[in-house]
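Run log // design_07
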């Protein structure tokens, strides 16, 4: 039922980040390369109280007091909303979801619920009604217990102080962990939580989870409760599809730790050898095993270059980095960094979340191809760039650095001038429009540079001339 099934998540605690902010980030990947997305704001008047899922048909009565929130839904409503990522007006962020794995032991005890909730629904029915990351866990946990789910997912919540990671278990169960402030997490498409302490203050779970494990003999370990071992998988597919992504990003943030891309027991909670920036997170989520034999654009054998699933991939629909800052006024805490399309040739833009509308270039994306939206412009550049990666990589690198530098310059000015604004949301929306204008200009410039570089390389040429 799920067509958004292949993602990569990175979580960064406030003491692990370069500026003291919390960051939850994810590539939203799909089963197919193209699935146009919009970037919108859902205002309280637009949030329906009577919710009905398209996929499962589940009907849920929502509270009457929703908060405003950003979201990145599908352009087409045919299979539902798929809100995916957002920050609400209480400065709480949610990324939903990272599709994970399960096993027959837990599904035999607690089967999936065909009429339950899933990725299509979760952001819409949770984010507008929470005032902290922990409240997000508690609300989603209660909904899972009441309605069940038809698929396994991992969901991230954050506020400016805390990050929580929740994983669904079977049809009705779940477990969540508060990520340490000085840690980072890489979560590919598998069960990720490892050692779980049921008595710790920084864990939450469905009430009967421990009894479910013990009474049904689900734990393969002699000691402790490793949820990845109990509820997850350790398959050949994990070794080709999931574990290598965690290995490569952990190697980037913690290079002194020697690990194998085929290790089934890579750590869940990690410590970096430096403070992590937005640029680091975006690079990691764009990576394809650079400087290894597994790089599809590298010097490995054809077999090696096809062996492992990269992080940045043609099925990237959008990448978000939801940043909640601790060194600014409450009105400008939330930054919804966003890019569309395959990550190898795009750039993230730091949109302020405290707005009532978003720029047309990012919110009015057509289902058919057209150059009047960032989604399709980014997709065109990625397709062209893939034809000769090494030829275009230098101008791509300049584009990424120049654009993020320009955005950061605008942001410094925007933060400073936001103080004392009579209508802060309207002012921040004007800054977001400036971001979109600069993004369009620089991305169009990149496309032009790539055309100029590529034209002399065309096969349709002849050495003799007039």
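design_07 sequence
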């Amino acid at each position: 039922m799920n067509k958004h099934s292949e993602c990569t998540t990175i979580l960064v605690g406030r003491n692990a980040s370069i500026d003291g902010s919390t960051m939850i980030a994810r590539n939203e990947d799909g089963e197919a390369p193209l699935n146009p997305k919009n970037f919108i704001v859902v205002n309280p008047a637009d949030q329906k109280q009577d919710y009905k899922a398209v996929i499962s048909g589940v009907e849920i009565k929502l509270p009457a007091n929703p908060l405003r929130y950003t979201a990145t839904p599908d352009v087409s409503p045919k299979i539902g909303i798929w809100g995916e990522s957002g920050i609400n007006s209480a400065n709480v962020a949610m990324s939903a979801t990272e599709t994970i794995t399960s096993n027959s032991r837990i599904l035999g005890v607690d089967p999936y619920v065909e009429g339950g909730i899933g990725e299509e629904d979760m952001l819409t029915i949770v984010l507008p009604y929470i005032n902290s990351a922990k409240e997000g866990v508690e609300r989603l946990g209660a909904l899972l217990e009441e309605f069940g789910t038809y698929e396994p997912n991992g969901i991230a919540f954050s506020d400016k102080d805390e990050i929580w990671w929740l994983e669904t278990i079977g049809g009705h169960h779940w477990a969540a962990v508060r990520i340490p402030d000085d840690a980072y997490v890489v979560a590919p498409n598998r069960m990720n939580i490892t050692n779980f302490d049921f008595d710790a203050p920084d864990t939450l779970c469905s009430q009967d989870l421990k009894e479910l494990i013990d009474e049904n003999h689900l734990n393969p370990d002699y000691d402790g409760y490793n949820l990845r071992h109990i509820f997850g998988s350790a398959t050949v597919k994990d070794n080709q599809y999931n574990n290598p992504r965690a290995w490569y990003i952990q190697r980037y943030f913690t290079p002194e730790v020697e690990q194998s891309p085929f290790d089934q027991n890579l750590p869940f909670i990690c410590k970096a050898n430096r403070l992590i920036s937005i640029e680091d997170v975006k690079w990691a989520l764009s990576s394809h095993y650079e400087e290894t034999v597994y790089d599809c654009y590298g010097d490995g054998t054809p077999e090696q270059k096809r062996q492992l699933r990269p992080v940045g991939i043609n099925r990237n629909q959008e990448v978000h980095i939801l940043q909640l800052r601790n060194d600014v006024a409450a009105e400008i805490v939330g930054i919804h960094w966003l890019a569309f399309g395959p990550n190898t040739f795009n750039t993230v833009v730091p949109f302020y979340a405290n707005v009532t509308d978003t720029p047309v270039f990012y919110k009015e994306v057509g289902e058919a191809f057209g150059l009047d939206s960032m989604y399709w412009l980014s997709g065109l550049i990625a397709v062209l760039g893939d034809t000769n990666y090494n030829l275009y990589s230098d101008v791509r690198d300049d584009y990424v650095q120049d654009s993020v530098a320009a955005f950061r310059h605008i942001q410094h000015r925007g933060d400073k001038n936001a103080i004392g604004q009579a209508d802060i949301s309207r002012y921040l929306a004007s800054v977001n429009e400036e971001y979109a204008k600069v993004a369009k200009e620089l991305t169009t410039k990149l496309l032009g540079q790539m055309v100029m570089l590529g034209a002399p390389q065309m096969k349709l040429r002849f050495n003799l001339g007039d």
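Residues 424-454 form the longest helix (31 residues).
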